[in-house]
Amino acid sequence: MVSYNIDSFKIEVLGTGGEITPSFVLVSTSASYLFNCGEGMQRFLSESDKKFMNIKAIFLNSLNWDSVGGIPGLFLTFSQTCAQLTTEKNFDVLGPPGLSRWFYSSRYYMEREVVHLNVTEFGESLSPPKQLSLDSAHDLVTPHEQLGFYKDENITVVPLILAPLSNTLNENIVYTTPLEERRMHLSHLLDPTRSSLQEAAVLPNAARRQCHSFEKRVSKIFSPSTVVPFNGSLPSLCYIVKTKSHRGNLDNSKADALSIPRGVCRGRLANGDSITLANGTVVTPDQCVSPGHPGHVFLVIDCPTKAHLEELVKKKNFLHLNTFVDRNYFEGSLETGGPVECIIHLSPRGIILDSRYVEIMQRLTDTPGRGQHIFINETFCDDRIIFNKLLRIQCKLSVLDESVYKIPLRDGIVSVENSLDAVKKLYGNWDCCIGEPLLSFTLVPVRRKGLQKSAIPKPVDVQKEKDSARDALGLTDSSVSSMDSSPKDSVVAVALGTGSSLPGKLRNVSCYVLEIMGDLLILDCGEGSYGQMLRHYGSARLPQMLRSVQCCYVSHMHADHHLGLLRILIEKKKAHVSQSDCGCLSPAVQVVGPKALHVYLDEMKHFYDFDFVFSPNFESCEVVELTPLGLPHLNFLCVPVVHSSKATGCVVSHKSGWKIVYSGDTRPCHSLVVNGKNADLLIHEATFLPELVEDAKEKKHSTTLEAVKVGQDMHAKVVMLSHFSQRIKNLIDLRDFPANVFVAFDNMRFDLAQAQRLPSYRASLCRLFSDE
Q1: Of 115, 247, 345, 693, which sits 20 to 30 A from 539 (CA to CA)?
Q2: pTM of this prediction?
Q3: What phi and psi values does residue 686 have, to the nearest 5 degrees?
Q4: Euclidean distance between CA atoms 263 and 283, whole angstroms
Q5: Which pLDDT tens digit goes with each residue over 128-163?
Q6: Which residues of 274-368 form beta strands (DSSP E)?
Q7: How many Å apart are CA 433 and CA 373, to the nearest integer?
């Protein structure tokens, strides 16, 4: 049996739909390569204890938000980690045309001081890709020396672009913000010394220079006035991926027979070099080194619509093995790859079962030996809950009050057995499997080649977790409480994200929903908020809830407070379009936030279909008062607070008399206290524990004790502490806090009229989490 002196290469499924959109990672010994990066990716990598810092490049199949929504958060996490480790990192993102424009629109909140980002656009299959470096140490636009493919020491990736004919550029786009105003917003935003209040500290001159340098470098890519949208379906990329070729192993018995001395001579032969012995004999590697392998090949096929399928049919010869070899994409620099061993299908069910698609795949797999089909799409895969650590916590909490501490819903169940039967009938000449999170397929070493399922997380036994919590509290089923149903004219508060900075295993980043007589008001919208809504409301009810969203408030431009907004807006538009046959209108969502957010959303409309009207939350450090569209009975105050530039909190009051205050991110703020007097509910950030008060001051956040003091000064009836550092596991010590204070958990909901009952659960919470 021939063995090879090789590294390892493994394909590992990450997302299959639901909270994490279809994606996977190619893991080698020295680096990892991510294919697609939807919202929630960094949270899932943390949940799975994956070393995301090994990611060297991200390959995008399209610019659909499902593919790219997690990149900014992951990139900012790279930056934060590199800063902590005092190191730097090179990071490549490669994808279809328009990628550089997409990154340009993200300039307002992406930091690039220690992470050097290189953006490469693949054009038509034989044209040189456009590469953009946003590293200040290099020229912004650098020539790409390769013809239409990516190559490093581990892999070569060849793209095939599917650009439907309807995908033309619309030169008649009209911005809702003038070019001069957008440039002004950019310069104001990128200067971190500009503060909402005089209490804000001034950053060092080096930080100011870095921000202004970034503004100048990014503006070289293109003026915002030249950014034009795609009118139709966004392009999609398929990929041919080839691992590096490998030499065979040195056969020591053959080397002994040839009298080759051990050491350097044998090492040179193993490395592929010929040697000359002392007696003048020339020994070549093939005399004592087993045959190597030209490299392992797999395909990634993303064909999202029938329009893309028509393009795939036109270019099907490109994907065929013989044509692929004849096109000489490797220009002789690498040996030709071996036969295709695996095909990863990201295409939806309707395309997978289309006869034209089947014909192309059957041609690709008409090779000796059996390969592996892996289908990764939410139309095939089970809608399983993947954040198991959080699910266990919520199972425990539910025994206190099932109406408040809701267990995440999983109602979008797909029959995996039926899906598998359907594809086996059409693709049965190869092995077929339906993707699951952490399912893997080993390419090399060859002795372990094939599927591995051992890492797939086991589903949480919900009943077992609940029984364990009941035992800890000495409860029986009959003793589980449940709040009364809410009055029709009341308001329900839903905490979807109660953590800070970045998504964690137990808490997602900031997002709160107020359900007001059938309408929804969203307060901040961090990455993954859509996934949280999916689990809270369920897939059947979610479209209705999205159509009910009237207003989204964003307190400031830090990424953990707005990265999830765009998907909410996109999915709301889809929900309305899906009901267009019933004659319902698609009203625009009112977005209240910093002016820089207006520019960001304005430019993102070039890629995505959504509607919004904008109201600024900040005007010259003064309180901004407005009435949200679609919510005429509300009065909404945006109050400048002590945090980053143009950060605000808000005070929401209803004509019926209730008042809710949301602090956003802030130090204790007198203006917020004054405007929020006698609030029924104060939602206040409590990022740090009391002993870290100096950290809180430096980063302009509050400690738990400071948040409680704000509630006392405000005379708030109930204080909900939230926005906890991800270093805080489950519960903070509440024993010395006033009786009206309670802790927020993800996925909890409560009626405002019943909020004063929530602090009564504090003793039970301490018992539940006593071991943590």
Answers
A1: 345
A2: 0.85
A3: -140, 65
A4: 15
A5: 344 443 333 233 223 233 347 888 999 999 898 898
A6: 275-276, 282-283, 297-301, 340-345
A7: 6
